[in-house]
Amino acid sequence: MAHIVTSQDIPVDGEFLEKGKVAKVKAIAGLVAVVGLIASCIFFLINFEKGSALQQAQYSFAYSWLYGFFFCATISMGGCFWPMLHNLSNSGWGTSVRRVMENLGFVFPFMVVFAIPFLFPNVQTALWEWMGVHAEARKAADISLYQFWGSGELAGKLTELHEALLAAKTWYLNQFAWYVRFAFYFLALGYAIYRTRKYSVDQDNDENPTTKNLFAARGAAARYIPIVGISITFMAIDLVMALDYKWFSTMWGVYVFAGCVLNSMAVIMLTTILLRRAGYMKKVVGSEHDHVMGKLTFAFTVFWAYITFSQFFLYWYADVTEETSYFILRNTEHWNTFSIGLVLFHFGLPFILLLNQGWKKNHRFMIAILSYTLCMHAFDVYHMIIPERGPSLGLILNNEAQLTVPHAWWGDLIALVIVVSGFLFFYLRNLTSVALYPHRDPRILESANLHN
Amino acid sequence: MSTQTKQVYGYLAEFKNASQLYKAAEKVRDAGFTKWDCYSSFPIHGLDKAMGMKKSILPKFVFVGGLTGFCTAVTLAYVTQVAIYPTIVQAKPANIFTLPAFFPIMFELTILLSGFTTLFGLLGLMGLPRLNHPLFESEQFARATDDGFFIAIEAKDAKFKAQETKGFLEEIGGQNLELIEDKKN
What we know:
heterodimer; A: mainly alpha; 2 domains; B: four-stranded antiparallel beta sheet
């Protein structure tokens, strides 16, 4: 029987990850992110000659950027979900790892920096075809941009341009509403996670800690958690599903959500393991926490497969032309191998490996499997976004559809490295700026002595 | 006159509270007894460790059960729908590429057989269902479902010796010691 943790074991002023310990990694990550972001913005802002190789590179790099951004955004949005769920469900088990969740979630508001390129006309034209069509319609009929619900005039003009689908969707798909929603995701969810983290951090500095902040955070979580759901769902629709405006899926939001929640838990668990190996948090986090987080990773591995397969299965079975387009593209040639690979390696392998209780408590094993899960998420997001690039770019630039753009994967790698560096920079900033666990939370001892 | 022989089941001892029960369990474990059990009206965290209990083998049964369900489903669906009676439903091919249609069956049968193995494996390992238990002979044992904490050491245990075991239980804080006899007709 392990030693029972008492208040004597918890440092009064909390445990901190010294800034100096990660300064080097943080500086390198920050440098890569800043240089990469500025260079990419400049590259996106230049108007290259139409149809030239450089314009093709620019357009294809827009997809790479969306890929890199969406990979990190999903993880940080999942990071917003966990602390709010923890507060809302009045949980006690995870108080000692809650700060890690809050720090991961609080990366999200900073991700707005990497979303700036999505406001550039070149990027919008490359990624979202409907924006180009709308711009054309607005220009031709001299229609104002500032219409939240669209207008009959805009719909009429789109119909004239033989875009009946877009005409019917103007109430949602129109440029001004898109900007408003875009601002909402970062402002609303950013505020929600900022407040959630603040309740917790304020408690650390409270000389006479009470349950006041804990209860306030629980009440606030009830208001904030719908914002998480709405933001994940609609950001997934606006940024990724809208790559092909003809296609729609009611499972899309929950599919992306499953990826968010699974991989943010992977990052949270990876962080707590690495911190403990470096000698931090040892008093309050133990193998029981590993067991709980391992179980959650397992649960969401299954949830991801369930949702992803449901989305595929219903469309495959019904076989309706406008519904199957997404999967036809991804079941063609090499993309098909990729899709089947996701079934086996995003679900099959981790499912088997995460079954055993003892393995879930083994740090070396979990480091390997969690890193693997994150790699699979990178492939999953790749599978969402990149297959659209060939056909769209082909249509924009050469008037013919093609499956892939040669050599474009270099751009994907570069964009991923840039955005992940930025993500790492902000994550380390959050981790070092406050105590590693809420040492004055009324439930910290309950959590430290967890038994399940 | 009927001849009724009685067989000794074991010794029952009551403990004041959960904490005493826990400490006593550690001592019984260290004394090397194997056939004994603790009785409490609520789960006590860590009692399994204090009793020196090993991990249940049930999960291994369940894994095999689930795997059996999965293989049954694959075979059942594939053999009937593709191999023996190639059935074309909604223009879906009758070959390996029709596998997605079988996923719900694989999923359901895996869960069904896992669930069955869990339930029946658990009942089997616990020796349930049974009609009676010798401990029900004891009046005070009824309190095990209310406010009583008990330890019973069975006579089947190799280390069991009536007088010494009684002394041992008293020594570790047991009260209201009772020799439980199993009625055998």
